[in-house]
Each structure stands twice: as C-alpha cells, then as structure tokens.
Write a structure and sequence with these properties.
Bound molecules: shikimate-3-phosphate
Distance between the termini: 26 Å
CATH superfamily of the largest domain: Enolpyruvate transferase domain
Largest sheet: 5 strands, mixed
Number of strands: 23
Shape: globular
Helix content: 25-40%
CATH class of the largest domain: Alpha Beta
CATH architecture of the largest domain: Alpha-beta prism
Structural class: alpha/beta
Radius of gyration: 21 Å
Number of domains: 2
Strand content: 25-35%
CATH topology of the largest domain: UDP-n-acetylglucosamine1-carboxyvinyl-transferase, Chain
Length: 430
C-alpha cells in the first residue's frame, strides 16, 4: 500500500482557485484543430494523460502540435495533409480519444491500428462501431471487431440517420465527426441531451451543422477553418473541490472560470437540492461555451433522489456525489445510472466497495446505489481501481475521515487533474 502524497489535515477549504481545463473540450480542440487547415491556438488546454494521447495520435499522422503546458499550437495542412501512421495508435485509458477517433479514422485514406490500456481494452466499442459500420466504415478487431485492439481501413462513408440507443455524447460525437466526411447528410437523434461540446466546436470551426432539440444534422460540404479555442475550467474536476467544500466544516471556496454548459451542471443542481450554499457569478461565453465563478460554503445537507432526468448532466460526478450523500441527513437514491458500470471501471461496484470500507451506509443496486446518511467515516485501506475519479473521491473522503485513508495507487489522477494535490494544498487551512 502506498500512502497518498497529500498531507491530510481536517482544516476548512478556503480561498480562490482556477481548476484545470475541461477534458472533453481539450480533446475536441486538438481533433478539430488537426482536421482544419491552418493554425489553431488552444489556451488553458488540459495537460493530462488522456488529452496527451489525442495530441500524440495526430502527431503520428503528421500534424505539427507544439505543447507548452496548457498552451498548445496546432499547425495542420487539414485533413488532406494527414498521413498513414507507421506505428499503432495508443488510446491509453481514454474512452473519449477512442470513441471520437473511431469517428474520424475510418474516412481517412489509409490503414490504422489502435489499442488501449487494459482498462480501455475491456470497454465496449460496439456502441460506435455499429453506426459507423452502417455508414460504410471498415473496422475489424478482437471479438468480431467490437473491442480494442482494432484495425481500420479507410473507405468512403455515406450519411445515415441514427437514433442513439445509449445516452452517450461519445457515440453522438463519433457519428457527427464521421458525418464530416460522409456523402449526403448525417443525422443523430438523442434520447436526452448529453454534453454538446462537439456540436458547439464544429459550429465554431465553420462546419455546416444544425441542431434542433435532440436532433443534430451535419452536411458533408465542410471545410473546417482553424479557430482559436479558450478552454473553460472542467466542472468535472471542480466537482471534487465543490464536494470537499460542501462537507468540510467552515469551508468557503470560490472556483474561477469553470465551464457552466447546461449539459454539465447537474452537480450544481444536486448541491443546491441537497441544501448547499452555492452562488454563481461572472457568467460569460468564450469559444461558444458558458463559464463563470462558483462559490460554495459548507452547510448541512439532506438526501435526495437522482434519476434519469439528471444522470447525463452529471455522469462523471456520481462517485463524488455518492461521497457527498454520506454526509447528508436521510436517504439518497441514485438510479438509472447503469452506464457507470462501463466507465474506466465498474464505478457502482468501486464506489460502494470504497465507501463501505470507510464506514458509510451504502448499498449497491443494479443501476445505482442507495446511501443512508449521515455517517461518520472512519478511514482505512482502499483500492482506486486505477480510476482517476475513484482515486480523487478517496482523497476527498480522507478530509472528513477520523483516521487516515490509504489508497493503493493514485497515479491515475494525472489522467484528468494533474495539479489535484497542489490545489488541495493551496486551499486547505491547517
Ligand atoms: C465524454 C462523454 C461521457 C463522459 C466522458 C467524456 C465526452 O461519456 O463520461 O468522461 O468527452 O464526450 P459517454 O458519452 O460515453 O457517456
């Protein structure tokens, strides 16, 4: 067991902080910047492991990408300038790189092989491969081409109309990106709104696409125009600090320039419904995305029910919301969240295992969990399941635990929040 490197105190979280750039938007900025001819400057890029995988893949296909921490310059000859990679493409742990690149690679006039780390290798790719195959994509691989590693042979694609069987922004994005290159028009119909960063950024780069409610259509007459992108702070990373400030006594924290896109702010709704003191200010739009400052003060909380109406707007925040619920009076029910079973790990199982070990009263259900609060957390030894959001949830739990929390491996935190411990040290009072 390796102790986490953070010097835990039980002091309040106080002050102001800029959380790192949004992971979803950083990936998309590299992708569209690489497909557009010209120079794309990206400001506040997330310098985390997942987004670095996306940079590396486009470099392997000949794009000149200069990265200096959170500043990135993409110089591309456009999609015609992309060249066949000599080595297999490595998606690492990144589901977003995998699913979105599978929307791009099948239309490129060459062959690619792609693989991932052991966690990504067992995550389902059929959800993107099924519609892409209908469009004419030529993808093959393990288990009849449904799991990584995959081999992709470029071919011509045709537009389709696709009703999404899962509430997934990654699947929506893969089909829309393939639609950039397909003949005719490509329409995706969602069951519920999922994050719309792909649609926003495609529009910003000049793509011919329209959205009406849950229906999104992209036409193939597209020349993407290189466009500078300022990435807002990631609300999914901010969520860990927001929950920490909501449960550590006497906290008063302000997170600046956080992305407030309506499809991502379910965590704010949950905090408010539970009774937390949350104030939003300084709202404005940059690069087609809303952002602003979030102030939170610790206050007593009550249990609530979180179901399908909210789930797509807070899917990545559910592990830390479960921790929040352990500190709320009464019962919190999280349901309609079966997608958590196919994230970086089975997050329903992982969260219940960890919070039970730490002394919470929590039960696993088929599609979520039930948490009875409020419980005093004791501490103990937990596994992170090599999942960044599970590891960070464990660290935040340690802030309110009576004894220390030992986490077997915290290296995965670099995937989405490389400055996590530095930030915690900045805001936590002794
Ligand atoms: C993401 C979409 C979500 C989310 C993931 C990032 C994206 O996945 O969980 O962390 O950038 O499009 P699904 O679309 O599969 O739900």
């Amino acid at each position: 067991m390796i102790n986490n490197s953070y010097n835990k105190t039980n002091g309040p979280l106080v002050g102001e902080l800029y959380t790192p750039g949004d992971k979803s938007i950083s990936h998309r900025a590299i992708m569209l910047g690489s497909l557009a001819k010209g120079t794309t400057k990206i400001d506040n890029f997330l310098d985390g492991e997942d987004c670095l995988r996306t940079i590396e893949i486009f470099r392997q296909m000949g794009v000149d990408i200069q990265q200096n921490g959170t500043d990135v310059i993409v110089e591309s000859e456009g999609v015609e300038g992309l060249t066949e990679p000599k080595e297999p493409l490595y998606f690492g742990n990144s589901g977003t790189t995998a699913r979105l690149m599978l929307g791009i690679l099948p239309a490129l006039p060459f062959h690619t092989v792609a693989y991932g780390d052991p966690h990504l290798t067992v995550r389902p790719m059929d959800r993107v491969i099924t519609p892409l195959t209908e469009m004419g994509a030529n993808i093959d691989g393990r288990k009849n081409g449904l799991y990584l590693p995959l081999s992709i042979r470029g071919s011509s694609l045709k537009g389709i109309r696709y009703e999404l069987p899962v509430k997934s922004a990654q699947v929506k994005s893969a089909v829309l990106l393939a639609g950039l290159f397909a003949s005719g028009s490509t329409t995706v119909v969602e069951q519920a709104s999922t994050r719309d960063h792909t649609e926003n950024m495609l529009r910003a780069f000049g793509a011919n696409m329209e959205s009406s409610g849950l229906t999104h259509t992209i036409n193939n007459e597209n020349t993407l125009i290189a466009t500078d992108v300022t990435v807002p702070g990631d609300i999914s990373s901010a969520a860990f600090l927001l929950v920490a400030a909501a449960i550590v006594p006497n906290s008063n924290l302000t997170l600046k320039n956080v992305g407030l896109n309506e499809t991502r702010t379910g965590i704010i709704d949950v905090l408010k419904q539970m009774g937390a003191h949350v104030t939003i200010s300084n709202q404005r739009e940059i690069s087609g995305e809303l952002l602003g400052d979030i102030q939170i003060k610790q206050q007593s909380l009550k249990g609530i029910t979180i179901d399908d109406k909210l789930i797509p707007r807070l899917i990545d925040e559910l592990p830390v919301i479960a921790l929040l619920a352990t500190q709320a009076e009464g019962t919190t029910v999280i349901k309609d969240a079966e997608e958590l079973r196919v994230k970086e790990t089975d997050r329903i199982h992982a969260v219940v295992d960890i919070l039970q070990t730490l002394g919470a009263n929590i039960e696993e259900t088929k599609d979520g969990m039930i948490i009875h609060g409020k419980s005093a957390l004791t501490g103990g030894a937990i596994k992170s399941y090599s999942d960044h959001r599970i590891a960070m949830m464990g660290v935040i739990a340690s802030l309110i635990s009576e004894h220390s929390v030992q986490i077997d491996d915290i290296s995965s935190i670099d995937i989405s929040y490389p400055t996590f411990f530095e930030h915690l040290n900045q805001i936590q009072q002794q």
